[in-house]
Amino acid sequence: MSDATPSPNDNFRQSELDKFNDLAQRWWDENGPQKALHALNPARLGYVAGRIDLQDARVLDVGCGAGLLSEALAKSGAQVTAIDLAPDLIKVAKLHRLESGVEVDYRLQSAEALAAEAPASFDAVTCMEMLEHVPDPGAILAGCAALLRPGGRLVVSTLNRTPAAFALAIVGAEYVARILPRGTHQYRDFIKPSELAKWLREAGLELEDVSGLMYEPWRNSARVVARTDVNYLACARKPEA
Questions:
Q1: Which of 28, 58, 153, 221 lies 20 to 30 Å (CA to CA) from residue 172?
Q2: Cα separation, 179 vs 92, whole angstroms
Q3: CA 137/CA 199 separation, integer angstroms
Q4: Contact 209, 232 (CB under 8 A)
């Protein structure tokens, strides 16, 4: 399928797309603006692989950026489709695919549009660090649910709306340590686990797990933990028909 220009009706903020387009050229630089994302990636992959058999699984990565998780999923044996609405990120993802030789089907497309085109097509869907950047997270989750086959699983990660998340993810990461570019996150857009659980239920999914994702800047690494007051991961299942 050829890439399509995002529709004005798609679920995005142009300011957010512009922000991530500006980061595209250094997305794969492990010491660049996305340094923390590189550190999070092994923990995110481990969480997904612990709940989904990735070998030959059809997996969709929603909000794929320039493909960090997408390539990792493919290296783990999955058949990966990856979508994003930031055109510069998709271009960089495709260029990196040429360098790495890791096969991923990158598309400039929204989850909602793909759900209308190919419902119930995937064994698993991932949506990492994206929900806090869109106007209507519930609509994204509904699209992800529609894309899952019965019995399939959705794995998401996002930021909790707590004072700890404000202190660490915004003040600490963006202004003190400068691990992330300033303006990466807006506190009002962070999502409480109870809000995520409500949207998942409304999408017809069953929440199976919520776990914390802790980034340790002094080691530049991350691990899955019990506390969910800053970053967290969640896994939900689509019931069998």
A1: 28
A2: 22
A3: 8
A4: no
